[in-house]
Amino acid sequence: MTVPQGRRSSTFTRLLRHGFTDPSAAERLLGAPELAALRSDPLLFDALGVAADPDLALLGLVRLVEAQPDETSRRELLDTLVSAKPLRDRLLGVLGASEALADHLARHPGDWQALVTYEAADLHPGVEEFERGLADATDPVSLRVSYRRCLLAIAARDVCGTTNVAEAAAELADLATATLRAALAMARAAAPADAAQCRLAVIAMGKCGGHELNYVSDVDVIFVGESADGADEGKALQAATRLASHMMRICSETTVEGTIWPVDANLRPEGRNGPLVRTLSSHLAYYQRWAKTWEFQALLKARPVAGDLELGAEYVATLAPLVWHAAERDNFVPDVQKMRRRVVENIPAGEVDRELKLGPGGLRDVEFAVQLLQLVHGRSDMSLRSGSTLEALGALAAGGYVGRVDAVQLDDAYRFLRSLEHRIQLFKLRRTHLIPEDDADLRRIGRSLGMRTEPITELNRAWKRHTTVVRRLHEKLFYRPLLDAVAQLAPGEIRLSAEAARERLVALGYADPSTALRHLEALASGVTRKAAIQRTLLPVLLGWFADSADPDAGLLNFRKVSDALGKTPWYLRLLRDEGAAAENLARVLSAGRLAPDLLLRAPEAVALLGDPRGLEPRDHAHLEQEVLAAVGRANGAEQAVTAARGVRRRELFRTAAADIIGSYGTEESPAEADPGALVNLVGDAVSDLTAATIAGTLRAVVREGWGDELPTRFAVIGMGRFGGHELGYGSDADVLFVHEPREGADEQEAAKAAAKVVSEMRRLLQLPSSDPPLLIDADLRPEGRSGPLVRTLKSYEAYYRRWSLVWESQALLRAEPVAGDAELGRAFIDLIDPLRYPAEGLGEDAVREIRRLKARMEAERMPRGADPTLHAKLGRGGLSDVEWTVQLLQLEEGWAEPGLRTTRTREALAAACAAELIPVEDAAILDEAWVLATRVRNAVMLVRGRAGDTFPSDGRELAAVARYLGYDPGHVGDMLDDYRRITRRARAVVEERFYGA
User: Fold this and answer.
1) Residues 6+ apart with CB under 8 A from 682
2) Confidence category of residue 888, pLDDT binned at 50, 70, 90
3) What are the angstrom distances between the C-alpha of 697 and each of 164, 644, 733?
4) What is the C-alpha separation between 123 and 776, in angstroms, rounded?
5) What average pLDDT does this structure show over 483-491?
6) Which run of H or of E encompasses 816?
7) Handedness of CA 199, 205, 210, 212 (dihedral sign)
8) What totals of helices (H) and strands (E) does the chain contain, helices first?
9) How much is the pLDDT for 348?
10) In 693-751, beta strands by DSSP E
11) What pTM did the predictor assign?
12) Residue 277 region by backbone torsions, left for phi larger than 0, else alpha for psi between -120 and 50, else beta
């Protein structure tokens, strides 16, 4: 049919005005003969314009009209469409939102009749109404047709706003219940003998059990079976299993009408490895003995829906006491900590930002928070025992367990996210939780949610706003009511009771909840500006403390720091306004004793945590410059060394904080993936800091006793870990002292002066003070403790030429000048190079002697009672094993391979590998073991505040070491197993490469 150009333009404009994106195609569809009666009907245009996708709605309508079997049916549809507004709105609403339901109507053109009725019962149908809707189904294919006819009505009420998202989700759950009953009836009819032998109850779990199902979702179930009328229990369970399996297939299998949804029974005891059907007593025995916390959390939504409902009710009643006492279980706290740590690793990196369910601020955050609070407080408050997320959230708010404003905001966010999820799934009836990327999809979804002006922009803005609310509230939800419990509230406000507050703190890992509440009261009570800021900060800080191995210590340390800095104007402002500062502080205060002790001696160092570059270690030149400047301003040697030790304390805190935060990670930046990088950071930073402190102490001692110049040139040589740039937090400084009388100076006077310098340096660095002492160890000098503390260069040369033993050559591999006269230091290095890198390497006798010394050390120096598989220094595959193996390579090959002439263990190992002196795989094994053992020693010092070479025996301290090493709560055993495995492999390499086995 030819349409005049003017008319075409008018229609074209009209279509654009009503929201069509392809008016040319729409104009062609309207030109179809079947729609002649409606072509200019303004009511049709208005109804299409209201649809989520007017183009899609018109195409679906044309397909439906064309699919009518005869002219009479077509006329009935069109007449009803024109005369009945409810049908028009419902039908076009569905056609504009769901391509899949439009396909169903095209295949079953009479099903539009399901949308005509508009009775009161039709507005809010329940299980009985849906059972009547499925009553005609006699096989899996007809069941699918009937199911989609019922789904069509649910979707129509949903998209037209007749029902809200919670009501739509409840209707979907009721339809699932009716469908499971119909499928079970078909299975029983197909096997009447099996049906006669057993009682079978179907328990809905998950969203179906909670009356909050999606359009497309697995329906989670658990089966309970018992024998009927005295039948053999074993045979009855076999019969029940056959019925259950057949019921699952009826719902899940793909037919010519597609599938309904998968029935998933993996929440049952033992998951896929357990029997599909168990007796009630078997269920009870499993949950009493073996069930994990998440399994009790899943039971919050258990609801009998099909089969023997009496047996199903008995199942729920029997397990309920276990569910509501799950929070008292020994492993509840680590389980909760593990579950609370966001797990998004399994989401592909490109999908995290579009993941509606599991992504940050997604549906799972709300559901988990509500369920955890139900487990903690539902023991004593029956009103919280609802399977519905929104009902439970309302009950938590009514009982004061959640702040009312927080609950309202979370309710709004959850409803929006669920509505968004419904609209995404409704389009093609596919299970997905990803926000689409295509503009056409986003436009359709936005319009379906009432966003008509700029649907894409409005949708993205609303989605981001609601996920931000969830991210912000899902942590505070646990902790804000704790503050209300100790604060002065307005009259009529409901607060958490003291007992409920203690219950919640225990459930979140606090061992002494009464003391924790006193800390909160001291920090947050009152009407001052300081208390108001604390009430803003603490809900988040408490969550970070609870994420550590010792939340009580974190809160106590925060109170101490706040008491010390509470009157300074910048402290709370820093934590409130600098996003990273508060989280960094929480991590540092709850990771162990060392960093908080360092901070509490100089609380102003908190400022480092808010500076983006504040945690970067300072290089040696800057450190030495600052220390020497501080020494220069001081009056007297003691004051000067006090200033130098103060710089050391601050820089130790900076290093420890960087190490802790790099090990734990933060919400904005993940944990450091390379543990070797953290080991290098600590080793370099502490070694440079120690060198700068010694340089400052040397300057102070010389200035106090001799003015500008000592009568002898003086140098300090770093040895051991100090010379190797591998110092840990608790390491002594191994050194040698060398001097050389100045020209014209008396040698005896020079020697006395040098000895007095050494004595005074050691005294000043160990004076009792608030700063950690620095112990100087010179036992590696010639003749050991029997020899003089300081020698001249000639004396060293004479000793090494005449008396030096092979172990001394080995010790000199780590020698490096660290302070004093640089030229004298270089001369000492020139003197010892031939000893530590002997020409042509070591002789056989020397190699045998080194191996004998190592074997003797293993036998004699291991502490009594220590586990050799867990001793980081002397144990199997530990630091000593790796270092002696590398040092033997240096002694043998250093003369010919320049890369081996380094004091650093990892650098020498890499050079040996590059020179093909050790296979790549063996080098990697040794490096991994050395890094791990070094990190264990650092962790022990950070956690306990004192040095140690073995894992702590205290449970909390051991858990803190595990957290530092990157293990989730509850995985201490995995840490110890991994340590033994890694060091066992290293020992095998040592046996081959060092001992020649």
Assistant:
1) 655, 659, 727, 728, 729, 938
2) very high
3) 75, 7, 14
4) 84
5) 59
6) strand 816-820
7) negative
8) 44, 10
9) 61
10) 712-718, 733-741
11) 0.76
12) beta
Burial of 286 (0-12, 13-18, 19+ CB in 10 A): middle
Token couple for 2: 């030819």
Angle between helices 972-993 and 955-964 (to 10 degrees): 70
Say what the pLDDT of residue 491 is.
54
Largest interatomic CA distance in the chain? 127
Cα-flanking dihedrals φ and ψ of residue 776, to 5°? -100, 125
* Closest by Cα among 215, 170, 164, 57 to 449: 164
Residue pair 260/179 in contact by the 8 Å Cβ criterion: yes
**476/733: higher pLDDT:** 733
DSSP string over 211-234: T---SS--EEEEEEEEESTT--HH
Binned at pLDDT 50, 70 and 90, residue 489 comes out as very low
CA dihedral 962, 963, 964, 967 (to 10 degrees): 70
Structure token digits, residue 596: 């908080």
Cα 527 to chain centroid distance, Å, stands at 36
* Beta-bridge partner residues of 777: 734
Please give the single-letter amino acid code of residue 253.
E
Mean pLDDT of 183-196: 97
| pLDDT tens digit sequence for 115-143 | 987 655 567 899 999 999 999 999 999 99
Cα–Cα distances in Å, from 166 out to 161, 477, 937? Answer: 12, 22, 54
Q: Is 913:901 a contact under the CB 8 Å cutoff?
A: no
Phi then psi dihedrals of residue 228, to 5 deg: -110, 135
Is residue 166 a contact partner of residue 212, using CB atoms and an 8 Å limit? yes
Kindly tell me if the per-residue pLDDT of 857 is higher than 60: yes
Residue 492: HSE in the Cβ half-sphere, 13 Å Cα cutoff: 1
Strands 303-307 and 198-204: antiparallel
